[in-house]
Amino acid sequence: MDEALRFARAMKWMKKGIVRLISVCLMIFVMFPFIWLLLSSFKHPVELLSVPPSVWPKEFTLEYYADLLRNEKVVLALRNSFIVSAATTLISLAIGIFASYVFARLQFRGRKSLYLLIMGTQMLPAMAILIPMFMLMRVAGLLYTYQGLIVANVAFSLPYVIWMYAAFVRGLPYEVEEAARIDGCSRLQILFRIVVPLSRSGLAASAIFVFIGVWNEFLFAVVMTQSGTRTLPVQIAEFIGEDRIRYEMLFPASILSCLPVLIVVMIFQKYIIQGLTEGAVK
Amino acid sequence: MREHLALRKSLAAVIALILVLIMAACGNGSSNPVEPGNSGTSGGSVSAGGGRSISVLYINDPQYWVDQAKEFEGQTGIKVNYVSVPFGQLHDTMVTAFTGGSSDYDVIHVKDDWVAEFASKGFLAPLDGQITDDMRAGIGANAFKPLMYDGQTYGVPRYIWLTQFYYNKEMFDKAGIVAPPATWDEFLQDALLLKEKGVVTYPFADVMTEKNAYANFIVYLRSRGGEFWDYEKGVPSFNSPEGVKALQFLADLNLKYKVMNPQSVVYEQNDTLDNFTQGKAAMIINAPHTFGQANDPKLSKIVGQAAVALIPGDKLKTASYAETGGLAIPANSKNKEAAMEYIRFVTSKEQEKEMALATGRIPVNKDALNDAEVQTQNPHFAPIAEQLQYPYGIFHHEKATEITDTVSKYVSAAVAGRETPENALKDAEAEVLGIIGK
Amino acid sequence: MIKSSTRATGANDRIVRTPRSGLRLFDWIDHRSDSFTAYLYLAPTFLLLLLLIAVPMVYALFLSLVKVGFVQGSIHYTFAGLDNYIQLFKDPHFTKVMTKTVVFTVAKVILTLLFSFGVASIIYFGAWGSALFKRLFLLPWALSYVVNGLMWKWMFNGDYGIINEILVRLGWIDTYKAWLAEPNSAMGVVLLADIWKSMPYVALLLLAAMQSTMKDLCEAARTDGAGTLGVFYHVIVPGIRPVILVCLVVETMWTLRIFDLIWVLTQGGPQYGTMVLNVFAYEQAFRNFNIGYASAISYFITLLTAVFTLVYLRFMGKEN
C-alpha cells in the first residue's frame, strides 16, 4: 500500500520533471540563437573569431551600433522598409477585407474554384516569376520605385490575407449581420460597421503577418529597388562584402532590423492570440 | 467599448502617419536620383556638362568605389547614379536586368568569366573603337586579353585579383624554417615540420568548396605543367596525369598528412583569410586584400607577421590564378559616351594609383603598379611582376559557371576523400563534356 | 451590447437616409445579388493577381516550354514542347535532388509541427517559464532569412562556432567538427535553422486553436478523471485537426519554396546533400542560364505542392 503510493508519487514527480525538461530544452532552442546574436553584436571582430568563443563580451562596445545609425544609407533603408511594409500592409488589408468577406459570407457560382485559384498563385516558387515580374515592372515604369515594390508585395500578401482573414470572418456569429440587414443596413454598412470592428483582432493578426513578411522580403527587393529605394534586408546584405563578411556590422544591423518588428508584435500580440482564437479554427 | 474606441483612434493615427510617409516618399521619389536612365531620352546627345548622367552598378565595400564616382562627378559634371548591390547579388542583378531587356545601367563591373558569359549573348557593347592608344599603352595589351571574347574587347581592366602565397613569418621562425617554400615538395616538408613542432595544428588552409575549389586546383595543376582547358579544341584538359597528380597532392595534404585544415571543403576565401589572420594557419593562397587585413589590428592577431612569396612550383617555377576586374558597357546603354568617359577616368594612372593605395587591389596600369608610394605601402606587390610572368589567366567559357561548379564538386569530393582523384577527374570530364555537348 | 446598439443606429439610419440622387448609383450597387456583389468585391483582388502573378506565371509556363537563347542581346525562343520537363527526369541528379526534397520537406514539416506543438502546449498549460515564453517565442520570426542563415552558419562554424564549444564542454564530441562539410550533418543544420525560423508562426496558430476550442472540453475531461496524456489524445488532437491541416499545407508550400537559407548555409552541398528542387532551379536559372529548364523545374515544384496538399486532404479529412 505504502509502496504503491510512493510509486505513484514518484511517477508523478518524474512526469513533472520530464515536462519541465522538455519545456526548458525548447526554451533554450528558441531563445539561445537570439541571445547569442545579441551578445555578439557588442563584440569586436577579433573577439567574434576567438577560440573558445567568449560568452560575455570581454570588451563591450556600442561602436558598431553608432556606426550603423550614422550610416545614412542604413537609416534611409530603415525608412524605406517601413514605408514599403506599412503601405503594403494597409493596401493588402483594404483589398483583402472585401475578398475575405466574399469568401466567408457570399454564395456565388465558382466560389470554390476562385478560392483555389487564389491559393494556387502561391504554389509557384517566387524565383520563377522574378524575371517576368521585372519585365512587367519595367514596361509599367514602376521599376525602382516604392510603388512598384509595394504593388508586387501586395500581390504576394493578398492570398495569405484572404486565407487568414476569411477564417476570422467565418467565425463571427451570422445573426448579428442578419439583424442589421433586417434593420435596413446596406452591405457596406454591415461590412464596415459590424464585420470589421468585430473581427478587428483578426485584422491585427493579418496585418502583422503581412508586415513581417514584407519587412524581411529579399529576392524581389534586390532587383526592384535602387539606391534611393533600397530596403533594409538588402542593405544589410551589403555587409557581406567581396573582401570579408563584416560580422561586427551584420549582427548589430540584424538586431536593429528586428526592433521595429518586435515593437509591432509586442503591441499587437494580444490581438494576434485573441484573433486567431476566434478565427482559424472554424 | 472604450477599448474599441482606443483601437479605432490609434488605427486612425497609424493610417494618417502612413499616408503622410507615403506622400513624402512619392514626393521625394521624383526629386531623388532614384530614376535610372531608362527615360528614353539619350543622355549622350546632350552637349557636354549639364544634364548628362550615367548609372554605375557595383559594390560599396570598400567605400573607395563610391568616393571615386563622386570625384568623377566633380571633375566632369556628369551625374553618376551609383547603384551598389550586395556583392553576392551582383551577378544575378545583371542577369535579371539583361534578360528583362533593361537599359538601366551604363557601366557595370565584369570579370573574365562574366565577359564570356554576357558577351556571347550580346549583352555587352564592344569597346575596341573607343579604347584610345593612350589607354592601351598604359594598361598593356596583355591585360586586355582576359576581357576579350571572340576577338573583340568588351571590358577595360582595372585591377587583378591575383592569388598569391602568404605565410606567417613568426610561425616559420618558430619551426626553424628560414625561407618560404619554392616547390610543393618543400611546401609539404615545411607544413609537416610546422605541425610536428606543434606550432599550429593545421599549417595550411585552402578554398576547396563545391563552388570554388576549381580555382586553386588550377594553380596546382598548372605548376605541374598541366592546363585546365584546351582552348583550341574547346575541350577540357584537366583529366591528365598532371591533373591526377595535383589532385592527389591536395587529397594527401588533407587525408594522409593532415596538414590541411579538413574544413577547407567548406572554406571560401574569406574563411581561409580569417584562419590566417587569427593565427590558425601558417600558409594560405589568397587574394591581395590578405595583406591589409592581416596587418589591421582591429581584425588580426598576427599584425606584422604576414609575408608573401611566389606560389610554390613544380615543373614550372610558379603559377597562379587571377581574375581581371574591369568595366564594361551594356549593349542597351543609352549613354555610352559618358560611360566611356567614366571608364577612361577610373582606369587612368592617377586613379589606379589611388585605388591601389585605398583598397590594396593590384592596378593593371604598370606605372601605377610600379609607383614607389604604392610599392612601399603594399609590400605584397613586390613578387607580382615575376608571378605574372607565369600562367595566371582565369578559365573562361560561355558556360564557365556551370563547368566550374561541376569540376569544383568533384575536386571537393576528392579532397574530402569521398572519391579517388582518378575517378573524380574522369567523372568531372565526362560531365563537362555533356554540358558543352561533346 | 454591440448587437443592440447597432440595431438601434441601423434603424435610425433608415429613417434619415432616403435615397438621395448622388447616392443612387451607390445604392443600386449595394442592392445587387450576392453573385454580383461577390464579383464586384473580388474585382480588385483578381485584377491585381491577374496582372502581377498570373501574367508572370503564364510567361513562366511559356518559358518552360521553350529553349531560351540570346541573339544580339535580345531574348530568343525556340519551341521545345515538353523537352524541359523530360530533361528533368533524365537529369543524372534528379533522383538525388528529389529524394533530398522529399526527405527535407517531410522531416521539416513534421518536426516543425512537433516542436511547435510543444511550445504551444507549454504556454497553454502554463508550464514553468511560460509567462516569459509567451512574450518571446515569436522572436525568430522577426529575423530575415539571409541573417538567419548566416547566424546559424556562424554558430556551427568549425573554427569558432559556439555550438562546437558547447558540445565539447558537454563531452559529446572530442574536437570541433565541420558540421557543414558532411551531407547528413549539413542537412541537420539546415533543418534546425529552418525549423527555428518557422516554429513561431505554427506555434501561434496551434496555440490559438487549442485556446479557442478546448478549454471547456479539457476541464470536462479532467473532471472525468482523464490524465494529461488522456486529455492530449482524446480531446486536443482531434479538436485541432483542422488547424493542423492548415499548418501542414502552408508549411509544405513554404518548405518546397525554400531558397535563401540553404543558399547561405550550404549552396545545396556537400554532394547534393542539401540540394532541394528550388535551389536546383536557382542554379539552373541564374548560374547556368538555363531559364527554360529552371521554369520547368518550378512548375514541377508547383505540381509537387499540389500533390502534397491532396495527400493531406485525403488523410486529414475533408473539412476544407
State the main characteristics.
heterotrimer, A: mainly alpha, MetI-like fold, 13 helices, flat, C: 320 residues, mainly alpha, disordered N terminus
Give a structural overview:
- The complex is a heterotrimer of chains A (282), B (438) and C (320).
- With 282 residues, chain A is mainly α.
- Chain A is built from 13 helices and no strands.
- The longest helix of chain A has 39 residues, at 2-40.
- With 438 residues, chain B is of the alpha+beta class.
- Chain B folds into 2 domains: 50-162 and 323-387, Periplasmic binding protein-like II (D-Maltodextrin-Binding Protein, domain 2); 164-319 and 399-435, D-Maltodextrin-Binding Protein, domain 2 (3-Layer(aba) Sandwich), CATH 3.40.190.
- In chain B, 46% of the residues lie in helices and 13% in strands.
- Chain B has helices spanning 2-31, 64-76, 90-99, 112-119, 133-139, 141-144, 169-175, 184-196, 213-223, 241-255, 269-277, 289-294, 336-346, 349-359, 366-370, 372-377, 384-387, 400-416, 421-435; strands at 53-58, 79-84, 107-111, 148-149, 152-153, 156-162, 164-168, 204-205, 229-230, 235-236, 283-286, 306-309, 322-328, 362-363.
- In chain B, helix 9 packs across helix 10, helix 9 (213-223) packs across helix 18 (400-416) and helix 10 packs across helix 18.
- The N and C termini of chain B lie far apart (77 Å).
- The model of chain B is unreliable at 1-7 and 23-49 (pLDDT under 50).
- Chain C is mainly alpha-helical.
- In chain C, a hairpin with a 2-residue loop joins strand 1 (66-71) and strand 2.
- Chain C has a two-stranded antiparallel sheet with strand order 1-2.
- In chain C, helix 9 (183-223) packs across helix 10.
- The longest helix of chain C has 41 residues, at 183-223.
- Chain C has 2 domains: 22-55, no CATH class; 90-316, MetI-like fold (Orthogonal Bundle).
- Chain C has helices at 2-16, 24-30, 34-63, 83-90, 94-125, 130-136, 145-155, 162-170, 183-223, 228-239, 241-256, 260-265, 277-287, 291-316; strands at residues 66-71, 74-79.
- Classes of the chains: A mainly alpha (282), B alpha+beta (438), C mainly alpha (320).
- Chains A and C meet through helix 1, helix 4, helix 5, helix 6 and helix 7 of A and helix 1, helix 3, helix 5, helix 6 and helix 7 of C.
- Chain B: Pfam families: SBP_bac_1 (PF01547).
